[in-house]
Amino acid sequence: MNFILLSGGSGKRLWPLSNDVRSKQFIKIFKNEDGIYESMVQRVYRQINASAPNSNITIATSKTQVSSIKNQLGNNVDICIEPCRRDTFPAIALAAMYLHDVKGISENDTVAVCPVDPYVEKEYFSTICELQNEAKNNSADLMLMGIEPTHPSEKYGYIIPETSDKISTVKEFKEKPDVQNAEKYISDGALWNCGVFIFKLGYIVKKAHEIIDFTDYYDLFDKYDTLEKISFDYAVVEKETNIKVMRFSGYWNDLGTWDSLTDEIPENIIGKAVLNENCENTYVINELNIPVLCMGMKNTIVSASAEGILVSEKEQSGSIKSYVDGIEQGVMFAEKSWGSYTVIDAQDESMTIKVTLNAGHSMNYHSHECRDEVWTIISGKGRTVVDGMEESVKPGDVITMEAGCRHTIFADTELQLIEVQLGREISVHDKQIFEL
Amino acid sequence: MNFILLSGGSGKRLWPLSNDVRSKQFIKIFKNEDGIYESMVQRVYRQINASAPNSNITIATSKTQVSSIKNQLGNNVDICIEPCRRDTFPAIALAAMYLHDVKGISENDTVAVCPVDPYVEKEYFSTICELQNEAKNNSADLMLMGIEPTHPSEKYGYIIPETSDKISTVKEFKEKPDVQNAEKYISDGALWNCGVFIFKLGYIVKKAHEIIDFTDYYDLFDKYDTLEKISFDYAVVEKETNIKVMRFSGYWNDLGTWDSLTDEIPENIIGKAVLNENCENTYVINELNIPVLCMGMKNTIVSASAEGILVSEKEQSGSIKSYVDGIEQGVMFAEKSWGSYTVIDAQDESMTIKVTLNAGHSMNYHSHECRDEVWTIISGKGRTVVDGMEESVKPGDVITMEAGCRHTIFADTELQLIEVQLGREISVHDKQIFEL
């Protein structure tokens, strides 16, 4: 079996824990069975591996997420990188061609496309496995999963099946409705469209060639930026006649807002915080190293990170996006394939950053045109290479690098350093990468 | 005229803006007439200088506040330092002896003792000047100011005057009552005791010698730690028969809690913050360099500093102290006579600090036994002295100092640096000071 996990999303709706480089699926706020915090992408990846061992999992995503994915799932994870954002149809077509041309998957093999961020129980993935078996047995060209609605939501598209059987042909699709129409659809037996699509690989290879003029994966990759932005629902699903839906009545939550997210968090506090006894239905998720004290708060979400601090009445947290759009701020933290960094001080002509390298990892060998840098090692052991010269480093060692100087650091153990950047125009884009 | 300003107080009730080294009177949250933020101590100092030009102002305080006072009022401010905390009677006695023996003030001169932190209009200080004139003319040995109560508060002691005249002899003192008794006192014409005492210097010199066995200021200073902790009200005021009170009906607020403090702040936002349109009666005071976003909050105070983040329903903010007592945290920011510092990262064996030196100032020449330090200059110009060697420094320069090495820095212009401290036992007490 094959899974394509679509990992998209912006960092606005779960600000300040998500930002331009960390989408919501990378926030570590769920506990796994060992009591260790994991992110949505780690949870879904673990659940698929448990439900369908030995299946191929490919993550379709943009360049900006590659570091976070490798940081959280390891360097061996299979990633199909979209050169730019082009909505779900081009993304699924590219990932399908990647399976076909790069991984050599047979056209007769089945593929399930899933969003990377639903909060579900393991039955969700066993249902997707069932659907792959149905597709394998030619039950229909395209199979969907439909979630049994719990309320007349305006946030989802609706699928209206012909019958109330577990698997039914699809009668009709409905766009996101108002509450009144949603109620009507639900009384007609409608299901929520949760973005899960199952087909044989050959089906989507054929569709891709019908809709886009290209030869193979490499050609499609090269012309990706010329493709029309179009959703898979619009380009394929709503035009398909040989289509079935399987209903799923298990637990499903799409965690799009702070309000829905806090429904799934097992504790009221993650990170350093104190709630006094007069707090009710209040959640603190604090990634800073300083404490939060809440007194007498009700139905409130408090979240703090290096990006900022959110204090929101729970229900209003859904409308956060437009306010966050108005906040001008550079990226203050990021996960990289080699570790992570946090901005701890930002001035006009300097920026101070705390860098953590995971054991056995190293940065790219790189230089900056417009800034000098100073590293002070604060923990761990490793080796720096500066303009070709390698040296061992330990806590207290200081490395100064002028603009133009090529540099990297290897972490032999987990290693932390304080980096002071100095220059008139400090930008993440000022970076030239070299072979070492 | 002489003023003794009592500057005491702990940093718990206005946490996180106050801490163990910054009492509430040093928080800059009021705007002066030029629109510049000033602290309570700056406001009171400015108001006295305006109401009674050419008077002597002496600040009676502990060692821990000296740096903050010099930072905010300048190096020429007159400070009488208490060697340790011994309540208001010893503090006032020491300050009186300081005026008498060090400053050479005549025993016939009048002195007003005032708390440093009431939020008042300038009429308050003209009333104190009137009281000093009354004392000069021998109206009574001891004169008090009594605030006309606005509500039956349980937070203050009450003074019951004989008559309702502007100046009256005192009939009786009452300890902090419950609301019911407070109502009764108020119907009897009682006033709040606001801790303002006026007398001729000779009066208190005599009282001090009656109660304490000492010769002069220097002797009293030396035996200060052996003195009994006793309040001026208990030791002197309640035993005095020749005592009068002047009523004050102008504006007075003691700003003891976040709730009362926010009543005096002209804007809902100080620092970086956004309130959405559904917020009501909500205040953000943010000293961090990251934004706060509030959505739909009502009657709420949000305050953030390097110490932590408070989110409190307004009325409950009064009971903050016991919760703050439970938070274990080193001092994360401080004002020094030469500038200020903020902890920006704290690890087990390292601490990273941002230091700002004001132009023309320098640190003490000092060393540490148990930690190495690295300075990276990020702005400004100055000179370092390291083990006797002076060198000019500019942004990008790095200075490494091993444990034991003596060092200081002079700021020729305002100068900022990032200091990384490295060692097993990092403590503010690990500091040896040398003559340069």
How many beta strands in the DSSP annotation of chain A? 30
Q: Please compute the radius of gyration of chain A using only Cα atoms.
A: 24 Å
Strand order of the largest sheet of chain A: 20-21-22-29-24-27
Q: State the share of residues found in helices of chain A, binned by percent.
A: 10-25%
So what's the overall shape of chain A?
A: globular
Q: Uncertain segments of chain A of ≥5 residues (pLDDT<50)?
A: none
pLDDT averaged residue by residue of chain A: 94
Sketch the major β-sheet of chain A: 6 strands, antiparallel
Largest interface: A-B, 60 and 59 residues
- Give the terminus-to-terminus CA distance of chain A: 39 Å
Oligomerization = homodimer
Structural class of chain A: alpha+beta
Secondary-structure blueprint:
The structure is a homodimer of 436-residue chains.
Chain A: E1 2-7, E2 30-31, E3 37-38, H1 40-51, E4 56-62, H2 63-73, E5 78-82, H3 88-102, E6 110-115, E7 119-120, H4 122-136, E8 142-147, E9 158-161, E10 167-174, H5 179-187, E11 191-200, H6 201-211, H7 217-222, H8 232-235, E12 243-248, E13 252-253, H9 258-264, E14 269-270, E15 273-275, E16 283-286, E17 292-295, E18 300-305, E19 308-313, H10 321-325, E20 333-336, E21 339-346, E22 350-357, E23 365-367, E24 372-379, E25 382-386, E26 389-393, E27 398-401, E28 407-411, E29 415-422, E30 432-434
Parallel strand pairs in A: 1-4, 1-6, 4-5, 8-12, 14-16, 15-17, 16-18
Antiparallel strand pairs in A: 2-3, 6-11, 7-13, 8-11, 9-10, 9-11, 10-12, 18-19, 20-21, 21-22, 22-29, 23-30, 24-27, 24-29, 25-26, 25-28
